[in-house]
Structure formats: C-alpha cells, structure tokens
Design a protein that fits this description.
Strand order of the largest sheet: 11-9-12-14-23-22-21
Number of strands: 23
Oligomer: single chain
Length: about 525
C-alpha cells in the first residue's frame, strides 16, 4: 500500500527535536569514538545499507470497543524462532472469507525507515478458522490450518521479522484490513551482542481472544497453574498504552524495537533470539554480551541456569536493560500436537521477594506467590521490589564510575521519567557490586519505593549491568511505528544522549571482556 504523507511537525515536536539535537551534539565526538560503525563493517552494517520499505499497518479494526482481536484478519506462526532452512508455518483466519497477502519485513534501522521487505507472498484464499475451546488450566490453543509454509532462506540475517497480513479488496469500494504476525530468525554465528526478545512476557499478557491471559483467571491476577499458548494470535496489547496499530506484534513495538533500531543504526554486531532459545547454553556462549530488554518477566528456571552458566563459566557479560525481569516462573511444555516450548504455565515466582514484601503487596501470603525458583538478584544484581509499579527519575549515585564516562553527569543529576513502569531495587550482596543510580519511584504518585541500578564484575573479566527500568530503551530511540508509553502519572521523555552514552559505555566494556 502507498505510504501516507508524513504530517508537518508541530511547534512542540520541532522544539523537542531541536533540543535533543543540541544535546546530542554535545556528545558527538565521544559517541563516534564508541560506535563500532565508525571503524568497521559487519553483517548488520551491510544489511542496513539497503533501502527500507513502508512496513506499518494502515487499517485495523477490532471486533468491539475495548476488544483485543480483529477477526477480519489475524494469524500466528508455528515457532517463536527459526533458523535458515527451517520451515515456518503461518496460520491465518479471515472472517468473512476473503483473499489476503503476506509481506515479510526484517526490522532494523534502514536509513531511519525501520524495516526492509524481504518477501511478498500470496494472495492466498482466506477463511474463518475455529475459536479454540477453553482447555485445562484455562488454555486457549488454536489448531488452525496453515495458509503457507515458508522455508527460511539462507540469506535472511538473524533478526526480528514482522509479517503484514492484508486482505484483498473484492470491489472498488471494499476496504482492506491488516494485522501482523511476528517471528525471530536466529543463527549460530559468533557475534558481539545477543539480543533476547521477551516473548514469554508478550504471551503472558496476551488477552486473545477475549481476556485470556495469565492475569485474567477468576481466582486472581497471579493465580498459579494457569497456562497460555503460543498457538494463537497476539491480540492488542492492553496494559499501559493503547495502540491498535501494533495488533499481532506482541509487545515488540513497545519495548524491544527502540533498542533494536538503535543497535542496528550504530552498527553493533548483533544476533537475535527468543526466550525459548535461552534454554540453550551454546546459544548464549557464542556471544560476548547477552542483552535482556524491556519487560522480561517470565522465565523457565532452565533459562536462569543457562544464563548463570554463561556468565560464570563462559565469561559472557549480561546487560539487563529491563525491569520486573526474571520474576515469574513459567515452565515451557509442548503443545497438544507435541511441538516443544509452545505452552507456558505459571508455577510461582523466583525467590527474591521476602515474605514481608509479599505481605506488603497483597496483604496475605498466598499460594499464588509460592517460590518456584532461585533468587533472581543473584543473577541480575538487583530484582523487582514492592511496590512493583510506578515512575521516577533515574539519578546518578556514583559519577566517577566508568558507566558515566562522557556523560557529564554529576551526583544527583537525573534523567527525568526514565524509571518505570516497573523496576528493580534491593541490590544483591555480591562482591564488587556498585549501585550506580538510585532514587525514589512512586506508585500512583504517592506510594514510594526505592530502585537501584547496579554494576558488578563477573568472574572472567565480564560485567553485569542492571539498568533497573523497563523504560531504558525509550531513552535510546523513538523509531517510526513506536509510541512512548506512560503509566502511574509518569512517562519517559524519549531519546536522551546520556542514556545513549551509558549504553555505549556498558557495551564497550562488555565487548572488551569477550
């Protein structure tokens, strides 16, 4: 479809852009020295030298006001991640029946456009596919027939791929409708940075078809023995922002996309994986730095074990550019058809919270908060705290630390609105751990908690950096198709040269250790 014209910037947007540009100029010389794109080319820089294409949705329609799905066209993929040579099935339902096309895009920088079209498939005949029954543990698992089966080409670089589904108008006056499917292409090459998408959490919050997430069990929001399936479309994300034009993409466009865009813009040698790929130590150990981004809440304990081994036995650095991470224990299990790692079941929480904190949060300790995993702060350096939600400013506590080199930040200087909507605190008692930023976060604007961002050394010259906030990537970039979130009367302010420089510093130190 033709790209609509971009509206002229408002005065406020013009001033905001100009201010950001002026601040960025202050750091330009230091930033260029830290950017790998300034000294070398790699698969990422070569890929992003190609022209980008229009990839965003133009027309979406939900089934009802306040709904989560679009029966007009919706779909899902057979795997969270695939490698070259693997077969990916794409399941699609259209109601009413009508033909549709699938355009597949690799997400990146691409001159600021944000994606490149790598395939255009169809048209295919579309038909309504059945709504799955409510199964054991409140599971909704689709068994749709595939619209197409795609063998992943050898020249598709590892990355996050969106498929844009578009119905074909039947008459000159007929409207077309759209939604996405999403999958990750992984590889086995050695790379500097391994970018893990938090797709377990995308699925945990997915309410498709009508309020069926891990949070909507009648027993309560954190009930155990509730399950969700990857064999269903991603509905509209319905928590801290409303963005129907992200329909079918999980939470990617909110949390992961700004970091992906920024990394590829600056030429970092990055490869990608899903949460289920983190079960495999060899997947982790081939890279110098493991990056968790955004809202990475739900983990299988085998992921914890693999990342711990990567850090402590293989010398991989870890950058936790996230919040509320490694909190809920959700073991993987196969689908009803036997495909591995397609079902998540909530078993409890990791072991960091104390009983006193749990009582403070929910008044009584219930089975919903049973401990089913180790203390996550020992992996990350800090963990989720009570209250869980809120917002605050990210405040420098240790200005002479290398993490602040080139930022000009002094003790007490703050980056406004960067902490939220969930966060980490309660730093672990680990050798050499430094609290580099700390301060107050407020739930509802009036209930305070204390967050801590930390850095500690690994045993092999590697590092572990915990930025302590889901909003971290919002300070790196705001690419096309991305909308800044807000919650609890607080919001991040978008790209900030200090966040960008701190991230460069962390990556430079992490890659040096590999």
């Amino acid at each position: 479809m033709p790209r609509p014209p971009r509206p002229a910037p408002t005065r406020r947007e013009f001033l905001r852009t100009g201010t950001a540009a002026a601040l960025a100029g202050t750091f330009a010389a230091r930033a260029s020295a830290a950017s790998p794109a300034s000294t070398a080319t790699n698969a990422i820089t070569r890929e992003n030298a190609r022209p980008g294409d229009d990839w965003q949705l133009t027309r979406v329609r939900l089934d009802k006001t306040g709904g989560y799905r679009s029966p007009l066209i919706e779909g899902y993929c057979s795997h969270q991640s695939v490698a070259a040579g693997d077969t990916l099935e794409i399941m699609v339902s259209t109601n009413p029946a009508r033909a549709f096309t699938i355009e597949i895009f690799r997400m990146g920088f691409y001159g600021g456009v944000g994606a490149r079209r790598v395939a255009q498939l169809g048209p295919f005949p579309g038909n309504p596919q059945p709504l799955p029954p409510i199964g054991e543990k409140r599971l909704r698992e689709c068994r749709w027939e595939p619209a197409t089966a795609l063998t992943i080409p050898a020249d598709w670089l590892s990355g996050v791929y969106l498929g844009r589904l578009t119905t074909v108008p039947q008459t000159a006056t007929d409207a077309y409708w759209q939604s996405y499917v999403i999958f990750i292409v992984r590889d086995r090459r050695g790379a500097d940075v391994l970018f893990q998408c938090s797709d377990n959490t995308w699925q945990a919050y997915n309410r498709w078809p009508d309020n069926f997430s891990l949070y909507t069990d009648p027993r309560g929001a954190h009930a155990v023995d509730v399950a969700v399936s990857f064999d269903r479309p991603y509905g509209k994300y319905a928590q801290i922002f409303e963005h129907a034009l992200s329909l079918g993409s999980g939470e990617f466009l909110l949390w992961e996309y700004p970091l992906l865009y920024w990394l590829e813009q600056h030429g970092y040698d990055v490869t990608y994986g899903a949460n289920c790929d983190t079960l495999d130590l060899t997947h982790l150990a081939r890279c110098k730095a493991f990056v968790s981004v955004g809202h990475d809440e739900y983990w299988d304990t085998r992921q914890y074990d693999a990342v711990k081994s990567a850090i402590h036995d293989r010398g991989v650095s870890a950058l936790w550019l996230c919040g509320n991470s490694v909190f809920g224990v959700t073991p993987f299990s196969p689908s009803s058809r036997g495909r591995p790692n397609r079902t998540l079941t909530r078993a409890g929480i990791f072991g960091g919270l104390t009983d006193e904190e749990v009582r403070a949060e929910i008044r009584v300790f219930t089975e919903a908060w049973r401990r089913a995993g180790p203390d996550e702060s020992l992996l990350m350096g800090a963990r989720s705290i009570v209250p869980f939600n809120g917002g605050g400013d990210w405040t420098c506590a240790l200005p002479d630390h290398w993490i602040f080199a080139g930022t000009g930040m002094k003790r007490g200087d703050s980056i406004p609105g960067l902490v939220g909507w969930e966060h980490h605190g309660a730093s672990a008692k680990l050798p050499g751990l430094d609290v580099v930023a700390e301060g107050t976060v407020w739930r509802g604007g009036d209930t305070p908690a204390h967050y801590t961002a930390t850095v500690h050394p690994g045993p092999k010259g590697n590092i572990v950096f915990n930025a302590a906030t889901i909003f971290w990537a919002q300070g790196l970039a705001s690419p096309p198709g991305h909308i800044l979130p807000w919650s609890h009367w607080s919001r991040p302010h978008g790209p900030d040269p200090r966040v960008q420089q701190i991230t460069r510093n962390a990556l430079r130190r992490a890659l040096r250790s590999g």
